[in-house]
UniProtKB/TrEMBL annotation:
Organism (species): Caenorhabditis tropicalis
Entry keyword set: Signal
Gene3D superfamilies in the record: Mannose-Binding Protein A, subunit A
Taxonomy, superkingdom: Eukaryota
Protein name, UniProt field: C-type lectin domain-containing protein
CDD domains (UniProt xref): CLECT
Signal sequence range: 1-19
InterPro entries for this protein: C-type_lectin-like (IPR001304), C-type_lectin-like/link_sf (IPR016186), CTDL_fold (IPR016187)
Alphabetized SMART domains for the sequence: CLECT
Family annotation (PROSITE patterns): C_TYPE_LECTIN_2
Domain C-type lectin residues, every copy: 41-175
């Protein structure tokens, strides 16, 4: 006897869901070309754009022109999606992808220490991701080498490694980057990932 109310509830659920679908016609939570991720803060759409040697401030502006911002990373599902999509596209090459994180005020002038460690040296700038699951650093980082590494890139390489750095890991770098001194640098910027709130 206990099953009947559940069935009725389920029936109304189906009607409600299909009704909603009819109202919105073919509208999707993300624009065409953007990929939907579910976050604790709600739906989030991510799109990767390719541009060799781009610097962080230009990537910021280009995301703004997409009504988006450089994306944070909620977790490893998101970072691996971005890293592997780019790795496949640029194969057999390698490079760096700009994402939306910046060094915290408290750690601006600090190398990696007990107080300024992997979990709190950077913060997400898009106000969307929560927590630190998206922070998978290369084993050296965030070391703030030269004390001017206030931005973050995600590594991409179809071979799985760029030098000793593994595809899908993060590294702290200068926002104007020291990675593009030569046009053949294996970690030169190749892409940036923008994110924006899903429509529903
Ligand atoms: C950005 O938003 C504005 C205002 O809603 C709209 O006119 C424009 O088409 C949007 N641009 C993109 C690339 O989505
Ligand atoms: C950063 O730290 C170095 C070494 O401790 C110090 O010489 C420098 O003045 C500091 N810079 C700022 C802006 O605090
Ligand atoms: C990182 O530093 C913060 C602030 O000092 C501290 O609360 C936290 O436990 C540290 N985390 C690790 C993993 O060392």
């Amino acid at each position: 006897m206990i099953k009947k109310p559940f069935l009725i509830f389920f029936f109304y659920f189906l009607v409600t869901v299909s009704g909603k679908k009819d109202d919105t016609c073919d509208e999707k939570p993300c624009d065409k070309g953007w990929k939907l991720f579910e976050r604790p803060s709600g739906g989030w759409c991510i799109k990767i754009f390719y541009e060799d040697f781009i610097k962080k401030p230009s990537a910021d502006l280009k995301c703004t022109s997409q009504n988006a911002t450089l994306t944070s990373l909620q977790d490893q599902v998101e970072s691996l999606y971005i890293a592997y999509t780019v790795s496949k596209k640029i194969a057999p090459g390698s490079g760096s992808i700009w994402i939306g994180a910046s060094r915290t005020k408290a750690c601006l002038n600090s190398t990696k220490t007990v107080a300024c460690n992997w979990s709190n040296s950077f913060e997400w700038t898009d106000q969307s991701a929560t927590g630190i699951e998206g922070l998978l650093w290369d084993r050296s980082g965030p070391d703030n080498a030269g004390r001017n590494q206030d931005c973050v890139v995600l590594q991409a390489a179809s071979s799985g490694y760029v030098g000793t750095m593994q595809t899908g890991t993060l590294d702290d770098v200068g926002c104007y980057t020291d990675l593009d001194r030569t046009k053949t640098h294996p970690r030169k910027p190749v892409a940036y990932a923008c994110g924006k709130k899903a429509k529903f």
